[in-house]
Amino acid sequence: MNTAVINFTTEPKLKLEAQRVAKKIGIPLSLALNNYLKHLVQTKTVIFSESQEIPNAYLKGVFKKAEENYKKGNASPVFKNVEDSIKWLNDPSAKYQNGDRV
Fold first, then answer.
1. Distance of alpha carbon 73 from alpha carbon 11, whole angstroms
2. What is the pLDDT of residues 45-76, one digit of tens each?
3. Confidence (pTM)
4. Residue 101 belongs to a domain
5. Other beta carbons within 10 Å of 18
6. Torsion on CA atoms 68, 70, 76, 81, rounded to nearest 10
7. Residue 29 maps to a domain
């Protein structure tokens, strides 16, 4: 079998944890990485989990403000298609869920 070497950087802690997991399930880390690369090629997708994302202070503030607005009823209605949402946005008499004007 021909092989190629791929060098990339990662956090040392992540590498150690990945090696521990691979060892625990009885495979070399290279097999796990090769399996991931095959999946990437076959599906042409990369999955990012939101649980890995840590929002910064600005984004936390945006989330908080959005939640406050939602609780006040300052939210658009739910739309079943894009056309209806655009129509609502362009309607000067459109109202939020709480009845306030846009």
1. 44
2. 988 776 667 788 999 999 999 999 888 888 88
3. 0.46
4. no
5. 14
6. 130
7. yes
